[in-house]
Design goal:
With 310 residues, this protein is α/β, with parallel strands linked by helices. It has 15 helices and twelve strands. The structure holds 1,3-dihydroxyacetonephosphate and iron/sulfur cluster (SF4).
Length: 310
């Protein structure tokens, strides 16, 4: 089947199912072009929370589909590929977090979890953050509590730099963003001296230091649109470039390289294809299912986040 026929079939299935297609900024171009909404984790959470569709086809990774299901227990949430996980989420298994909290009960931690984590970790947390609202939410955390920030130590240390609030950090990271290095970004900056460097906060401190702006994927759109520069070096997953080029066609976007390649793909995000999205809507599978006790507990910190960042 050629791509346009497949896209037509997906749109037809979407109508039949009364479905909405939500896609993260890192998805392949064909999926971004077909989606009802494309955005960052925060925008996607708001869209998932307010949709009146019966089915949510979530084109992103597993924890994103889970988040949609947590706030929509009565809806069917399908994802194109059940194996589309996340190295960052995997770096903090709920059993390890529970054991750590038990062993450190005297600290009475206020647990702040980056949304890139499993439902089980969300269920152990007090509030969720995304890269788009982390600073604001950490600033609102109770002043008399010790904070444990999980699972991304790079985002956590960036938030500490921004807010001055001390936090204990889980030692997780994103395997894509830690591939950018001071050397690889330093070289591309020298090659394009007039370009602004825009980096995701999951990058290491050494890379963040080279950036003109550190922000969520959604904020990258407004920053590049509103900043008086013609060229930008984008230091995040390669899918981001599709959206930037589509929405800001008159500017130049240069993929930030790693030491090994010219740009960075997340192997999990790239597991999703139009074919799998089609089959997901046709079969209503693979479907996200979460035990109700975990879902109900995980909904509390997500709701708190949505209220705090409104
Ligand atoms: P954003 O919320 O900024 O889109 O980031 C999600 C993500 O997975 C980054 O690797
Ligand atoms: Fe997870 Fe990194 Fe992929 Fe984002 S880019 S989904 S943090 S592995």
């Amino acid at each position: 089947m050629v791509a346009t026929d497949l896209a037509e079939e997906i749109l037809e299935l979407k109508r039949e199912r009364n479905a909405v297609i939500l896609a993260h900024n890192y998805q392949v171009r064909e999926i971004q072009e077909l989606a009802d909404y494309v955005g960052d984790s925060l925008g996607l959470s708001y869209h998932a929370a307010k949709t009146d569709a019966d089915v949510i086809a979530f084109c992103g990774v597993h924890f994103m589909g889970e988040t949609a299901k947590i706030v929509n227990p009565t809806k069917t949430v399908v994802i194109p590929d059940m194996d589309a996980g996340c190295s960052l989420s995997d770096s903090c298994p709920p059993t390890q977090l529970a054991a750590f909290l038990d062993a450190n009960a005297a600290k009475n931690y206020y647990v702040i979890a980056y949304i890139n984590c499993s439902a089980g970790v969300k269920a152990l947390s007090d509030v969720i953050v995304t890269s788009g609202n982390a600073t604001r939410i950490v600033e609102a955390a109770p002043a008399d509590r010790n904070i444990l920030f999980v699972p991304d130590q790079n985002l956590g240390s960036w938030v500490m730099e921004q807010t001055g609030r001390k936090m204990d950090l889980w030692r997780g990271n994103c395997y894509v963003h830690i591939e950018f290095t001071r050397a690889s970004i330093g070289r591309i900056r020298e090659a394009y001296p007039d370009a602004k460097v825009v980096a995701h906060p999951e990058c290491t401190y050494a890379v963040r230091l080279l950036a003109d702006e550190v922000c969520s994927t959604e904020k990258m759109i407004s920053y590049c649109r509103d900043t008086a520069a013609d060229a930008f070096i984008i230091v995040t997953e390669s899918g981001m470039l599709h959206r930037l080029r589509r929405e800001i066609p008159d500017k130049t976007f240069i993929p930030g390289p790693t030491d090994a390649c010219a740009c960075a793909d997340c192997r999990y995000m790239k597991m999703n294809t139009l074919e799998k999205l089609h089959d997901g809507l046709l079969n209503l599978s693979p479907e996200i299912v979460i035990p109700e006790d975990i879902r109900a507990r995980a909904a509390l910190p997500i709701r708190r986040m949505l209220e705090l960042s409104r």
